[in-house]
Amino acid sequence: MDKKNTVIGVLLLLAAGVSFYFSAKYAPPPPVRPPAAAPATSGSTTARNEAPPPGPATTPSDATLRAGPKDEHPANFTTLANEFIAVKFTDHGGAIDSIALKKHLAVLGQPGLYTLNQPQAAPALSFADFPGADRDARYELVSSNAAEIVYRAIVAGRLEITRRYTLLGGTAGDPYQIRHESTFRNLGTQPLILPRGSVNIGTAAPINEQDFGTYLNVGYHDGKDTSFLRRSELEGGGFLSNFGVGSKTDLPFIEKPVAVTWASVKNQFFAAFLTLDQPGTAIRLERVKTSPRAPVEDRRAYGVTGYALFDLKPLAAGATVTWGATYYAGPKEYHRLANTDFFKHNEDLVMEFGFFGFFAKMLLTMMTWVHGWMGSVSPGWAWGWAIVLTTLILKIVFVPFTLAASRSAKRMQKLMPLVTALREKHKDEPAKAQEAMMKLYKEHKVNPLGGCIPILITIPFFIGFFSMLQSAAELRFAPFLWAHDLSAPDTVAYLLGLPLNIMPVLMGATTIIQMRLTPTPTTDNAQATMMKLMPWIFMFICYNFACALALYSFVNGVFTIGQQIIINRLPEPVLATLPAADGLKNVTPAKKKK
User: Fold this and answer.
1) What backbone phi and psi angles, to 5 degrees, belong to 352?
2) What is the tens place of the pLDDT at every residue in 344-356?
């Protein structure tokens, strides 16, 4: 039965690994439809962001606004820049057309800059469903200088909207931040009802051709918690939809009525988020086809866009109201977003480190510190060395725990003949066998779980390291040794169409050697077989992960091998023969194998 269970377990693990490895690349995506026109953000599921059909002329007594004809002329652009960003503004909507990041290339080895909100569903910070003032409305350029630009529009002769953008930096804010204020002024003699506000946060697209959109989402912070709406939530179909779980058809949008302190749209390494002066009232996610020529069913052809909704109170005659927010558009760098001088509402949670976020933040902080020190020693490979040194620091800190666990494992191994004899003697009485084994462990001061301590301690750091690599823009395009990008697999060649990744193979080799050197406190053949197979399964699962994770595991493994060699040369624990306990005679603890 043990052998049968072992075979079944191994087959299930291999099947899971194969599915995990090939699903993203080869599995057919769920059915999708071309993106539909966006419904109105005011709650309607049929209205579109268009001017209403012709109707009676607006009169001074009207309490609401009506849009004029759509401006069909090409947009005029103005660019403001600092050392980090070049922001391209458009007079269509008086908003942000795109943001080029001066410190980040779009493609490794090519001169083009990575540009946010390009392609786009709408200009970032443009209004939606605001007659005469949305993305299709022409705004007048009032003024511009090196750091500030101002637009203005008059809606139906009754409402003046002034939109002001200021690039921050220095003591005023982070250089990736833009301060925005929209001032609404009632030009009429009657109170004016304003539409519900809806501002576009930006559009996020897959990071490259190998990105299937796993990290694309729209997030929000409600003042206490952070949540994320993923692109996959818009994709209908799938097996579970036949049982009422999820939608059978694609959804054009998802809108949630929640308090919104800040709202974000992001991909794997870059984010745009809007921190509102006053909390918004809802968040909205839409899917956008960012590659028009790509097949409809290709996941890589779709990005996401988001909207933050807010309420505007009616304006008395001659009154004004200002809606303000701070907009960040740049890399997901934890050390930057954790700066509470410029980000006061937990904006660093946009990193989405998950349950082991504490460990991820600690590791990234440590790595950033080591990188700053290594930058003057080896500038080109600084991030690679930062990973190596951070791993070694962790291993040195954990040495006392590892030594204690190794001693426990050795003592446990020597007791295995006694444990086996007790199990055989009480094979029909499991409770009595367990009681006898606990007595045996206590007699010889052995903790049966002692060998698990290093693994339990290491797992949170490993998962924290993995989650950190999913979001840390610092590692994108960072080279080390033969790897050109630590955030991607270190593929050096292709054999029969399959990638040859060196670092995961080295990681697997160290794990196998480590397993051979480590005492195995079990005589169960099934468990022993599973332990031997685990390094191979683990290497297979991690084969296409980021090179940085494999580098961490490889360095960890090399250190552990050296440590285990030293431990194995330490004096063996001396255990006395259990004196005829529980009816056992002539059974002695195991001796060290030569």
Assistant:
1) 55, 55
2) 999 999 998 888 8
Same domain? For 401 and 286 the reply is: no
Instruction: Please state, as a whole number, how many other Cβ atoms lie within 10 Å of the Cβ of residue 156.
Output: 21
What is residue 4's three-state secondary structure?
Answer: helix
Q: Are 144 and 151 in contact (CB under 8 A)?
A: no
Task: Give the integer Cα–Cα distance in Å for 98 and 118.
Answer: 6
Q: Which domain holds residue 463?
A: 382-568
CA atoms within 13 A on the CB side of 492: 11
Quick one: 96 and 192 in the same domain?
A: yes
In the block, residue with structure tokens 């003057």: 376
Distance CA 364, CA 468 (A): 7
Residues 240 and 146 in one domain: yes
What mean pLDDT, rounded, does the chain reach?
A: 80
DSSP 3-state assignment of 468? helix
Give the residues across from 180 on adjacent strands.
165, 325
> What span, in angstroms and rounded, lies between the C-alpha atoms of 489 and 105?
18
Q: Are residues 96 and 181 in the same domain?
A: yes
Tell me the two tokens of residue 242: 């036949």
Instruction: Check residue 80 and report its DSSP letter.
Output: E
Element (H, E) at 485: none
Q: Rounded distance, CA 294 to CA 211, Å?
A: 14
Task: Identify whether 590 is part of a domain.
Answer: no
> pLDDT tens digits, residue range 394-449?
888 888 877 777 777 777 777 777 777 777 777 777 777 777 777 777 777 676 66
Q: Which of 228, 244, 246 is nearest to 236 (CA)?
A: 246
Sign for the CA dihedral angle at 273, 279, 285, 288 comes to negative
On whether both 279 and 190 belong to a single domain, the answer is yes
